[in-house]
Amino acid sequence: MYERMEQVVAMEEKDVTEPSAPAEFGEALSVVALEHMTGPCRGTVTWLWQPEVYLRLGPYGHMHITEGPMNEAREGWVARICRDGNGFNISAVDDQPLWINRKQVDSKVLEHHDTIEFGNNGPMSRCYLYDNQHPMRETVTDIIGDTLAYFRNSRQPFFNRLMRSAGQLARRLAGETTLLFRFSVIVALAFLGWFTYQQGRIDTLLTQQVESGAAELEAFSSRLTRAREEALTPEDLTALSSELRDELATTAERVTDIERRSEASANVIADAMPSVLFLQGSWGFREKDGERMLRIVVDENGNPLPTASGVPRLSLDGTGPVAERQFTGTGFMVGDNGALVTNRHVGLPWEYDANVKMMLTGNLEPIMTRFIAYVPGVPDSIPVEFVAGSDDADVAILRQTETVLQIKGLRLAGAPPDPGEEIIVMGYPTGLRSMLAQAGERFLEDLRKTGETGFWSVAERLALSGRILPLASRGIVGGTSGETIAYDAETTHGGSGGPVLDINGEVVAVNAAILPEYGGSNLGVPVAKVRELLERAKMN
């Protein structure tokens, strides 16, 4: 609503005896408001309800208004506004220029939002016509102010005042504000509803991700528990010795048979053995933006706190041991640049663990906590690190973090083998268990006495006693392609990453997968993929 401002325009003396009175209360007579946009009176509003008024411009552009018949002795009158029914008509006086909406007129019925220019260089005013069709619109501030005034000054009970104030505010905002304001409120409410809905969906997704991450964390903890349960104990050593005694005899017979059947094969095995390394590692999760590791949560006595499922609870705030997954594998040296070849799933073991993929999308990242290699006949381990991995084959390149040993590398074959050709697969199948089976009763008895049955300590004892030696198995190539080589040489898990050699002692493939459903057939990555990766890593 336009505020009733103090009239800047001067009211001229009138010849009428008495001004026209406003309409009686309840009558629906129209009212004109002229908002002065230019000239000395700009920013003010003149309200007109009289039957007839005359408008005159002063020497400095001020607007003067006189009610009633024009005094003929006066000059400078520019327009006459008179009531016409429930409307108003404006007309020019003495052929003075009168412009309405950029059109010169002599007379016109005023309409809501007409723009009037008095004279060729006179001031401009905007016409607002208020009647039943154009009710006055108050500002939101006025409506809220009226509501607060009622609430403060009413003598009704508090609850009645509150309810009436709320009803009055809602009714007036809905009925007395502009259409633009109401439309804006509807749009804002719709946007708020949409935003609330989307926020709810996001919260639901985040909850699902948190629950899924918690489930993956619990699954990771469960696998750690199983790994600890499967760790060697003194009692296991006795059972292991008994269970694997026959397998050891069979393995020895197989190696003896190979040596007996072919002196060339025996030479291949003997020459390649120092280049086939036993890999041992562990990995866990670290905070992406910090140094905290995922640890087992323990109580004040150092005992792990279990989850509802009974597995140890894991947290970045834990104070117990780091939650680690342990693994073993096989690798072999090639060339003279210290390149150590293995499988990608050995170099980056977390990539092939589907159960922890959800954990990788959160605030955790996998990290190798320890990665070492043992060279046959060498008592000390050497630290190794990941260099590069193939994107389309299960092969990776490792290297010593420091050049500790100069190890002879195997040669890479220039062409893939043909079906029917003989090959030899070397590696460490079943990891520590196969080497313990070969170590003999006395060695196992010593471990039982000392209690050194941990993952790392067993490997150290095997290396110190010179018992880390790869196994060899002979087979026939069943088929070749650009992606894989199939053969029937016997091996199992733990032998992944070992070399597949031809009768000349050259590497034709990297042992990668076991297919028990095909009678124990295995798959290897062709040496061409190894050569491509070496060139990419600039270690050829």
TrEMBL record:
GO terms for biological process: proteolysis. It comes from the Bacteria. Keywords: Hydrolase, Membrane, Protease, Transmembrane, Transmembrane helix. The keyword Hydrolase applies. One of its GO terms (molecular function) is serine-type endopeptidase activity. It holds the Pfam family Trypsin_2. The chain crosses the membrane at residues 179-197. This is Serine protease. It comes from Hoeflea prorocentri.
